[in-house]
Amino acid sequence: MHTGDKAFQCEICDKWFSRQENLKIHLRIHTGEKPFKCDICYALFSQSGNLKRHMMIHTGEKPFKCDICDERFSDSGNLKRHMRMHTGEKPFKCDICDERFSDSGSLKRHMRMHTGEKPLKCDLCDERFSESGTLKTHIRIHTGEKPFECEVCDVKFTDSSTLKKHSRIHTGEKPFKCEVCDKRFTRNDSLNIHTRIHNGEQPYKCEVCDKMFSQSGSLKSHIRIHIGE
């Protein structure tokens, strides 16, 4: 350990180890051997330490405590990631857009924006998603599940963000402000539509007379002139 001497070599990937026991554990990566089993849920692990940490899920044991907010964790890795919330540390950087993240998982999910990778597939309609949370929300379209309920009018929603937008009807909150005239809106898409008044953008075109409109509703009303509705 002190000399750095590594006398034991893996014959598969040529990686070296200072102890034969470490080599033995490493070889399980190649063999897939998982000799340590949870007696409660029968999950298998390649190392005894991983099994020990896993058992804390069942026992509820959380020996690692944050000194700032007293939140507790079952393993030191989760505590370390949690601490970055307080320190603001973001050691993981995207090589494409230089955006930084506090954990490797967030960086991995972010990279799918650039690569277009969508590894998660809906088993009911084959639509694909880049994140498990988005897939979970999508599944509710098929199941009809709406777990998020408005406490004021009892209307239910499939996801928390839609509930949050809806709640502004009751609270009157308007967090989105126009930078030109300071008018405020409850939704970002409403602000985007309003902004077209100032920038002159007209993305909706009538296919009959080529007249342009800033809002889809205005185009829909205009179409009635042509169809005589």
From TrEMBL:
Residues 8-35, 36-63, 64-91, 92-119, 120-147, 148-175, 176-203, 204-229 form the C2H2-type domain. Keywords: DNA-binding, Metal-binding, Nucleus, Repeat, Transcription, Transcription regulation, Zinc, Zinc-finger. Gene3D superfamilies: Classic Zinc Finger (3.30.160.60). Coiled coil: none annotated. The keyword Translocase does not apply. GO terms for biological process: negative regulation of transcription by RNA polymerase II. One of its GO terms (molecular function) is zinc ion binding. It holds the Pfam family zf-C2H2. It is found in: Nucleus. One of its GO terms (cellular component) is nucleus. PANTHER family: C2H2-TYPE DOMAIN-CONTAINING PROTEIN, ZINC FINGER AND BTB DOMAIN-CONTAINING. This is C2H2-type domain-containing protein. It comes from Sinanodonta woodiana.
